Amino acid sequence: MISGRPFNSLAVRNANNHTIAGLVFVHDSPVGPCEAPKPFSVLESVVLDIPQKAANLPGAGPSRFSFVIIEGEQVYGTVAPSEARPDIGTSTCAFPNGIIAPEGVPPVFFGDVAYLQADGQNAPLIFESVAQAKAYTHSQEYQDLKRMLVSLELRPVK
Fold first, then answer.
1. pTM to 2 decimals?
2. Which residues, in sequence order, are CB contacts of 139 under 8 Å at separation 6+?
3. Any idea what DSSP says for residue 98?
4. pLDDT (tens digit per residue) in 47-72
5. What is the DSSP letter of 148?
6. Distance between CA 121 and CA 70 in Å, rounded?
7. d(C-alpha 75, C-alpha 72), whole Å
8. 12 and which of 21, 71, 138, 157 could share a cystine (Cβ 3.0–4.6 Å)?
9. 56 contact partners, CB below 8 Å, separation of at least 6
């Protein structure tokens, strides 16, 4: 799930003991080289009420729950809170999930992958078409996963 070295993590499993998400506090998560960027789309995005650090990264924020797909040989998807705001209509090598937490809280990844690779090697969701990915948003599995991921609350440790 995370290639960096997490210092605290927890797996979320479904009734079949399959990992569907993870909550990971990590210092970094390196992304590998990019050979062939692919087009991406945000199928759903909901702003979350999570305080941001005073010195937020340029081009990022606010934190949002997002369902992102990358169109490659198949359609690859990820669901997670993210602050990434790449320009829509462009291509990407990897879509980063994770948020810059409030002061006193390390960066957080809470979702199915820390970043979705354009080649789909680490894709937690794979669809045959964009229409199939859109239809997934109406499934009970998606609704349950979204409800859980949107529930994230972060508070600084005092």
1. 0.79
2. none
3. B
4. 887 766 545 555 566 788 999 999 98
5. H
6. 12
7. 6
8. 21
9. 83, 100
